[in-house]
Amino acid sequence: MWKQFLSKLPRKSSKSDASPGSAHSHSSNNVATSLNGNPIQRTSSGNVVPSRSTTVKRTTSAIFPSSVVTSIEPLLSFKDVSNSDKQNLFISKLKLCCIVFDFSDPNKYSSEKDLKRQTLLDLIDYVDAGCSRFTEPMISASCQMFASNLFRAFLSNTRTSSGGGETEEEEPLFEPAWSHLQLVYDLLLKFIESSSLDAKLAKKYVDHSFILRLLHLFDSEDPRERDCLKTILHRIYGKFMVHRPFIRKAVSNIFYQFVFETDRHNGIAELLEVFGSVVSGFALPLKEEHKIFLWRVLIPLHKPKSLGVYLQQLTYCVIQFVEKEPKLASSVINGLLRFWPVTNSQKEVMFLSELEEVLEATNAVELQKCLIPLFRRIGFCINSSHFQVAERALFLWNNDHVISLVSQNRQAIIPLMLPALERNIQSHWNQTVLNSTQNVKKMLFEMDEELFLACESKFEEEEMKRMIEEEKRRMTWERLETTATFNPVTENIAVLVRSAIASPIAAALS
């Protein structure tokens, strides 16, 4: 009966066990004897688990102090015990919730699962009420319960990576045990947020090991779990100031591994969303550590092909840096140019979108530091045969701040942009791109008519020279083909081409 199941929980010998029938007689009918007949054993870390190896699917590697001995029946309600006994009842309920069930079979241990769910709800209500401060035994038991239920190893991800687009995300896999996990996460969140929790006392248990295992869970396939983790990590970062440098370093290591080793992680977007709030809270002037995070972590995150999954969060983090310290704008732009996806049109459109946001936060002084390579790259994008790339590059000229920057630096920008515009007008296949090109050309003409005409004249001269060079090259190849025709090579004999033959042709062209 249920008494056998509860007898496995730690008890003080000085007090007799409370009878489940006297406390909650209606519960005994819904609970099978000792997990449906399976004996209960305790792991080395103090967690209570069913002895059958197939029952427990999750693994826990957290190490906590030895279990706290309690003497209160866990099925009791908090309102049915005195205030002095509520601490022991809280710990008893936590110990009961350390048991982890197998959810691969929904009909297995259904009554026990319902009991655990109700117990978790009771714990949530108690923590939410904030009646008393958490003692060290309560904190220890809470962290042990969180570790037993949450910390687990994920199966290796064998699914193929998507093409990197925002609309090409794989279908998420949902955690079958979410009905329990969600409540455990809710309890952890309320536990961290509670004003009854002393951070100085709790940091002994919410330590570096606990945080590392929590960060490991961000690789979960279930987006609901990652969303809970995002909020919890943000609260831990805010409450445990002593752990802030460690959290930044640990998350940076996750990003390094993702960019330079695995190229796959499910929680990059959520981690970046947390760091968006972290970066917005950085004090000025920015520390060198924070600038290194921008250069070595955020900028290289533009490299993976799955950029589209977390582009929005990444752009927000980058813009936060530029807005806080405008002198970083040129470094950010040079970083984007360094990782520019010349063979991936879809990513190129994403880069152009982010570039526009960066330019909106850039002043004229910083733009001059990267002006030539930047607008040369924009010119290449305008000439792209992929109409979306060309159209997005031309769309930059609809931004008032970008136009202002161009106007201030028109002496350098118009000579760079005019050739790209003229080539588009001559040869681009897409009518929308042609219309946009004409509009931009008209805009530059109105900006500085004299400079525009001078650049147009220079472009025509250069085009003439280019055509002459192409004609020379064509005639040289024709001469080589003619020579080869009249002097067939039957063996491995070198053919000498005399330069005297080409002199009349070169003279005629000149």
UniProtKB/TrEMBL annotation:
One of its GO terms (biological process) is signal transduction. Residues 1-53 are annotated as: Disordered. One of its GO terms (cellular component) is cytoplasm. Its main location: cytoplasm. Gene3D superfamilies: Leucine-rich Repeat Variant. Coiled coil: none annotated. It is found in: Cytoplasm. GO terms for molecular function: protein phosphatase regulator activity. InterPro entries: ARM-like, ARM-type_fold, PP2A_B56. Residues 16-53 have a biased composition (Polar residues). Pfam families: B56. Keywords: Cytoplasm. The keyword Cytoplasm applies. PANTHER family: SERINE/THREONINE PROTEIN PHOSPHATASE 2A PP2A REGULATORY SUBUNIT B, SERINE_THREONINE PROTEIN PHOSPHATASE 2A 57 KDA REGULATORY SUBUNIT B' KAPPA ISOFORM. The B regulatory subunit might modulate substrate selectivity and catalytic activity, and also might direct the localization of the catalytic enzyme to a particular subcellular compartment. Belongs to the phosphatase 2A regulatory subunit B56 family. This is Serine/threonine protein phosphatase 2A regulatory subunit. The lineage of its organism: Eukaryota, Viridiplantae, Streptophyta, Embryophyta, Tracheophyta.
